[in-house]
Please model this.
Amino acid sequence: MKSFLSIFFLCMCCTYCIGQTKNSNDMTYYKNNEPRDYSKMIYSLSVNSMDCEFVVKVDDVLAFKWEQDSGGSITFKLNQLILNNGEHTVEVEMYPLYGKHTLGDAQVILTFHRYPKNDMANSYDSFKTVKSYILDEAGEVVNDISNMKKYSFSTTFQATGLPIGNMGWKNSVTLQSEDKAKLHKELYNEYRKIHTILKNKDLDAFLELTRAREELIDFINCFRDIDRKARLNGINNMINAKGAILNELPEIHDTHMLFEANGKLVTLLDNNNCAIIQFVSEQNNSMRNQILFKFHRKDNNAMLEVIN
Model:
């Protein structure tokens, strides 16, 4: 089955949609009229892989999961994952390709980038590269992973110059400490709302439900009007893609919670550890687009809301 986890379909516009969509010239979108400092920094990460499946986590938040083909390259923004200045951790887990039992010649290379929002052309800085393999002075690999069933590595980087103000889930409630059964039911009901909105192709309702996330992404990435338009088009493409069928939700007893960000974020997965919101191609049901929604609770009296 060809599938990848498109948890960034809204966060970073690094997803695919099946087919063409309707015109979106008249659609509305969250407007932020606060002044922006476009000298603030934008951070991104490029991941190049060969002969493996892999997972990337940033500060204990799943950023991307590759489950298709033998390798490739993707670049996505980090601002809406790191949220604040300081040291941040990126972890990679590598797995054999489907049908294989060991990693063989697998490799993953991370390249970190940064640039001021207002000067990408002249100030783009690829400031760090980390590889899954380690070479000695003679150029020989010293960490042979070819016979391994799993390999993990991590690195840290320092972020400076980010917009300061919206901290996302950093100061939110630790959901993992709440009553699990009660939280599971509340979370499933939120997913039912999302599923109904997507089934009805209700763009306005979707934008309202994800407002907290949109405000965060707009702020932390110093959006201009052109960025907002591109994001809106991406949302519309997902909701109204022709040739794509929205799968029915599994029953609650066929789902389980996944906590991230040290228990401050939670999402739902099915029994196959896949997102429970999925679009499937009409022509090929093995082609599917999985979409995660991650929730937080701002304080003990607040409802769950989508924030990532």
